[in-house]
TrEMBL record:
GO terms for biological process: protein N-linked glycosylation. PANTHER family: ALPHA-1,6-MANNOSYLTRANSFERASE MNN11-RELATED. Keywords: Glycosyltransferase, Membrane, Transferase, Transmembrane, Transmembrane helix. This is Putative alpha-1,2-galactosyltransferase. It comes from Lachnellula suecica. The chain crosses the membrane at residues 31-52. Residues 1-20 are annotated as: Disordered. One of its GO terms (molecular function) is alpha-1,6-mannosyltransferase activity. Belongs to the glycosyltransferase 34 family. Pfam families: Glyco_transf_34 (PF05637). It comes from the Eukaryota. GO terms for cellular component: mannan polymerase complex.
C-alpha cells in the first residue's frame, strides 16, 4: 500500500512574482525619493523666507506710519478742525504716511473724561492699518512744524532711539522710585513718550504694532482705571500702569520733550520743553482751560506751518 506524499513546493517562485516584487520596491523607492526632495525644498524655502523675508509679507504700498488725531467737532470750529487735519495730511503725503481722524463720539467712554478717547483711537488704528509699523498719536491742539523730519530718522530708528532715550529716569518727577530701564536696546522699544515737569506727557506718543501694544492699550483702557477717578484721568492712569506693570515699563522709553512734544508759550512747562523754531511739533498744552483760546494761540503757527510746508 502506498501513501500519497504531498509534492514539495518549489523554492523558486514563479517569474511573475519576482517582477511584481521588484516593481513594488522600485515604486516605494521613488515615492520616498520624491517625499525627501519635497521636504528638502520646503525646508530651504522656509529658511530663505525667514532669513531674507523677515517672516512676514507686508502688502506693497503699506504706509510705515499712521498719524492719529481725535477731533472734537462739538467744541471747535470747522475751520480750526480743517486746519489741524490739513497739517497732518500734508505732512503725511510728503513722507508716504497716512492719517486717521476719529471723533470723540466714535467711542463709548462710559462717562469718563473725553481725553480717554485717545486710547481706543490708537487701538482702532492698529486694527484699521494692520501692517503699518508705527502709530503716532498727536493731540488735536498741536501742529507739526518741521516737515523735513521723518518719524523714522528723527525718532524710531533703533540707533537714534538709543541716543535719545533718557535712562534711569523717574517716571513721575522729581523722585519717583520707579525709573526707566538703563539697558533697553532701540530695537526692543515698543512705546516712545516724553515727559514734562509734572509727569508723562501723552499728548504725543508712538507705539509699534504688535501684541505688546495691543496688551498695553487694553490695559490702559481697562474700565477699572477709567472709573477710578484719577485727578488727571488717562494721564495718571498711564503713570500708574507704567510704574506697577514691569511688562509695560520694559518696552517704554522717555525721550527729550522737544523731540516731538514742544509746548507753546503759556503752557505749563519749563525752558527745556518750550517750543523753538525748527522743532518738530508744537502743542498748545492746556489751551482748553478757562481763559485761553486754542484757535487764537494756534493762529500764528497755522500761518507759519503753511508757509514752511509750501516753500519746501
Amino acid at each position: 500500500m502506498h501513501l500519497a506524499i504531498p509534492s514539495r513546493k518549489s523554492s523558486n517562485p514563479p517569474p511573475y512574482a519576482n517582477r511584481s516584487s521588484r516593481y513594488s520596491m522600485l515604486r516605494r523607492s521613488r515615492v520616498q525619493a520624491i517625499a525627501i526632495t519635497v521636504c528638502a525644498v520646503g525646508a530651504i524655502l522656509f529658511l530663505v523666507s525667514h532669513l531674507f523675508g523677515g517672516g512676514e509679507r507686508i502688502p506693497s504700498g503699506t504706509p510705515p506710519v499712521v498719524i492719529v488725531t481725535v477731533v472734537d467737532e462739538d467744541n471747535y470750529s470747522k475751520d480750526y478742525i480743517k486746519n489741524i487735519k490739513d497739517n497732518r495730511i500734508e505732512y503725511a503725503k510728503k513722507h508716504g504716511y497716512t492719517t486717521f481722524f476719529p471723533t470723540i463720539k466714535d467711542y463709548d467712554l462710559g462717562g469718563s473724561p473725553t481725553s480717554w478717547a485717545r486710547v481706543p483711537a490708537v487701538r482702532h488704528a492698529l486694527t484699521k492699518f494692520p501692517y503699518t509699523t508705527f502709530v503716532w498719536y498727536l493731540d488735536q491742539n498741536s501742529l507739526i512744524m518741521n516737515p523735513d523730519l521723518t518719524v523714522e530718522s528723527h525718532i524710531t530708528n533703533p540707533k537714534t532711539l538709543e541716543s535719545l532715550m533718557i535712562k534711569d529716569q523717574s517716571i513721575v518727577p522729581p523722585d519717583s522710585v520707579i525709573k526707566t530701564f538703563s539697558h533697553l536696546k532701540g530695537d526692543k522699544v515698543d512705546m516712545v513718550v516724553t515727559q514734562d515737569k509734572e509727569g508723562l506727557a501723552q499728548g504725543s506718543f508712538i507705539v509699534r504694532r504688535g501684541d505688546w501694544s495691543k496688551f498695553f492699550l487694553d490695559t490702559w483702557f481697562d474700565p477699572l482705571y477709567r472709573s477710578y477717578n484719577f485727578q488727571k484721568a488717562d494721564t495718571h492712569a498711564l503713570e500708574h500702569i507704567v510704574q506697577w506693570h514691569p511688562t509695560i515699563l520694559s518696552k517704554l522709553v522717555l525721550i527729550p520733550q522737544r523731540t516731538m512734544n514742544s509746548y507753546a508759550k503759556g503752557s505749563n512747562t519749563d525752558e527745556s520743553g518750550a517750543y523753538k523754531d525748527g522743532d518738530f511739533v508744537i502743542r498748545f498744552h492746556g489751551c482748553e482751560s478757562s481763559g485761553r483760546d486754542c484757535a487764537a494761540e494756534a493762529d500764528p503757527f497755522s500761518k507759519q506751518w503753511r508757509t514752511v510746508f509750501h516753500s519746501r
